[in-house]
Please model this.
Amino acid sequence: MTHDRAIIHQLQTGVPGLDEVLGGGLPEFSFNLIAGQPGSGKTTLAHQIMFALASPERPALYFTGLGEPPIKMLRYQQQFKFFDFDKLNQCIRFVNLADDTASGVLDSVLQRIVKEVEASGPGLVFIDSFRSVLLAGQGGDASYEGVQRFIQNLGVLMTSWQATTFLLGEHPSETEHNPVFTIADGVIWLRQSVLGNSIVRKMEVMKMRGQPTLPGLHTFRMSNSGIRMFAPSALVPAFAADVGLAASPGTRLGTGVPGLDAMMGGGLPRGYSLLVSGPSGSGKSLLASAFLLEGARLGETGVIAAFEQRAANARGPVVAGLIASDRIGMIDTSAPDLSVDEIASLLVAEIHRLKASRVVIDSLSGFELALAPTFREGFRESLSRMLWALASTGVTVLMISELEDRFSELSFSPYDTAFLTDAIIVQRYVEVESRLQRVMAVVKVRASAHSNALRLFKIDDNGIHLGDMLPLQEGLLSGRPGQRLDMDALAEVERDA
Model:
């Protein structure tokens, strides 16, 4: 005997990133709780969902309790771009429950809700703040059993009316002894933390019946467009198929620096991540610009995340022109209190928009400093997740790592991220005949033969120009007589790779 499974329609919330975290959308006719501290964004989230979903076929009813009156709430909510005046009093209606909750009798509150719902037949119902309704009830003769009965009756009635319901409340903790946590089909928790001058907002879907939600805390940001969530692991499956840039075996990309492709065994394999490491002024950003320009010459688009003002402004008129013509996208890294997930989401979205094949991150040091302090812990783990998200789109990534040149030491990144990358190029300074010269070496190209030569190079108005191999007898280091570049260490890294 076969049985047909019940089909639950998923509603698109209109909140970027939230549908992916929910597992595809919000279950229709579900009974949900949106909880969190005052000021964490509960009312904004509810309004953004309401304006996205409300229609003449699915009208919305928004109940307000003892909190701010509707006219005051609307005064501030209309500042967001999602606010639609045309939907007010057509498919969105507000009802104030202040007089009903003031009586302290929960049955009276329930009767008023039933009356309004039966009169308008809404497909969406919001009660803000639900906690104020319960607290008012406790001021009367309502016992715990009475509160539980009120919540159960409300849940059953809303489901029978085929309404998708949202209860908003300032619940102090998720462990609070409250029957609404058990009865609710979905629980969305909003959090905010303050560290120094940084405010970080996070959202967690603690419960959503019948759906494979993404676990964990996901950062979000409120702007004049509303709320946007950042969960790169949720975005990748949706974008990867559209971008269509999965790495082809044997396909290699040119770096834009004559001679460097040959050193790498024919270029950088498509889909690889490349770490360019070196001290200040060694030419890392120029190499990154050459990488993007070479892509543009071949008709490919690119994306750059520049975390230092000088890096954004010093790329020359050609790169600036490509950015202006939208052949190279530049993501906004100036917003305060950034998280790695936010940057990853912005990069993936820009890759999708431009169908980009090349990405530059300049630099990891600037990236870390741009993060809110709470996100600097575990930077390496977060960076690993971001690289996975970018790799899933098929793009080729070039990252810059700023290093102090200690001459006799061989290091590629202060974050121990070398093992995360598929290829490494190191740039260094050496003293040759009383002059400070630049040298470059290819340390690693995964699964590929490559040169281990140390090549001198020069920089002029036309970019980077590779020169001859550094003669061993001239490999003396500035200020360290008798010491040489550590060729054995280079060879050992190459063998390990």
Summary: The longest helix spans residues 144-160. DSSP finds 18 helices and 24 strands in the chain. Residues 236-247, 473-485, 493-497 have pLDDT under 50 and may be disordered. The first strand starts at residue 10 and ends at 11.
